[in-house]
# Entry
Amino acid sequence: MPATDTASRLTPYIEELLNNEHARENLREGASQLRAAYERSKKRWVKATRDRKLRRQLESATTALSAGARALASGRHKPKRRRGRRLVWLMGVGTLGAGLALAANEDLRSSLFGSSSQPGQPSEGS
# Structure
């Protein structure tokens, strides 16, 4: 297989890697975790089969590397943060709190809505 065929097959992936920050972050994180796991496994006192931290590092590395590879293959970019949902949620909680405060506090209701007829007081029409 000539080198030009290999280069032409890899060109789209290289371009996507240069343009896709999400994939680069995942691949960088995976490589970092692999380096940390390798450094830990080089220690003589560490038994790789029983070392929980080493296993966590390897799992984290494989997860990050596979996410980076999937992002490269699919062209998926880093998802944007959705702030609108948080704002709607906060507004809902605030409205609920205000409603509960109005329902529980008679003085607050009367100060907001004006004094209405209290029990024991005659109304205007009678």
User: Anything to note?
Assistant: Residues 83-111 form one domain.
